[in-house]
Amino acid sequence: MTNSIVGEMLKEMRGDQTQLSLGMEVNLTRESISRYENGRSKVPADISRTLVSKYDNPEFAIKIRNEYTGTGPKWLDGPNVDLHRSSVKEKTLEEVKEVLTLLESFCLSKPLKTLQLFERQSLEKLLDELVEAQTAIDHLVAVICTEAQISYSGVWDKHYSSLASAGYIGGTR
Predict the structure, then answer these.
(1) What's the CA gap between 67 and 73, in Å, rounded?
(2) Which pTM was predicted?
(3) Which of 44, 69, 94 is the last residue of a domain?
(4) I want to staple 76 with a disulfide (CB 3.0 to 4.6 A). Which of 15, 81, 88, 113 is the partner?
(5) Are residues 53 and 106 in the same domain?
(6) Each residue's pLDDT expressed in tens, for the chain with a length of 173 residues
(7) Shared-domain flag, residues 123 and 161
């Protein structure tokens, strides 16, 4: 058995609903739901999308993305995190200001393969700060959507539609 953050979150979101009832809603067996929750099987991509849509839970969506791709932010739940909207906003502002300062000072016009060691170190610092800012921004969106009861999936769907109409992507999901 593996430890599945997604499975644990699924069990938590299911609450008092039985595995059988959830399975019937998403066209799965009770046994499949049990395997996902206990980490014996990974939730397939199509079922993950169904569950993200059903629960519209930003924390679940972030955890799925991270667990299955190994990229993107991890959900912040350590002893030093404060997910109150004001705290997350202040941390996001701090991270965005740091990344803007580094981004403005780093020249990206030079071919990156030709960077000197000190320039490469600066570039790696910039990447670190970009990832920190992305984590902060993702959590701010999640916290605001949850507290304001705004659809997290809806926010992303609107964004994807905007990208598609601007010609940046081929279409919506």
Answers:
(1) 10
(2) 0.88
(3) 69
(4) 81
(5) no
(6) 456 888 999 999 999 999 999 999 999 999 999 999 999 998 898 999 999 999 999 999 999 999 889 999 999 999 999 999 999 999 999 999 999 999 999 999 999 999 999 999 999 999 999 999 999 999 999 999 999 999 999 999 999 999 999 999 996 55
(7) yes
